[in-house]
Amino acid sequence: MREDGVAVAEDDMPGCTLTVCRDCCCGSRVKHPAVDHAAQLGRLRELLPAANRVRTSLCLDVCAQSNVVVVQPTRAARRRGARPVWFGLVLDDAVIADIADWVRAGGPGVAGLPATLALSVIPAPAAAGKR
User: Fold this and answer.
1) Phi and psi of 118, rounded to 5°?
2) SS (H, E, C) 36-77
3) CA distance 76 to 105
4) Any domain includes 127
5) For residues 123 and 121, what is the distance between their CA atoms, to the nearest angstrom?
6) Per-10-residue mean pLDDT for the chain, 131 residues long?
7) How many domains does one find in the chain?
8) What predicted TM-score, i.e. pTM, was given to this entire model?
9) What is the CATH number of the domain that holds 68?
10) What is the spatial distance between Cα 24 and Cα 1, in angstroms, rounded to a whole number?
11) Residue 1 falls within a domain, yes or no?
């Protein structure tokens, strides 16, 4: 959805799409009682310009790494070969801020991944042999 209220297909979004897992483990007060999951999601949305889409998902099948956030590249970056980047153990506001900074700089295929954020990268389930 653009700022003017016009619906836009995901492939036509000019920014990155962030998928935040919020199911059995990710977003769970039982598993992570010290994390304010709603505030974490709100902060991510607050930090990113409207060109980027933040959505939630059911289980992404990497429960041992919860909370999980997947950053999908812009359409243009995908055409140049950029792939989604998966982040695990996103339990801290500093990691949320680092992800938002990187996405504002262009995200996958556009901006280099900061060393501190690289520490949170996890393999996608298919890459880990889970599917």
Assistant:
1) -60, -25
2) CHHHHHHHHHHHCCCCCEEEEECCCCCHHHCCCEEEECCHHH
3) 14
4) no
5) 7
6) 48 83 88 90 94 95 94 95 96 95 96 95 75 43
7) 1
8) 0.85
9) 3.40.30
10) 27
11) no
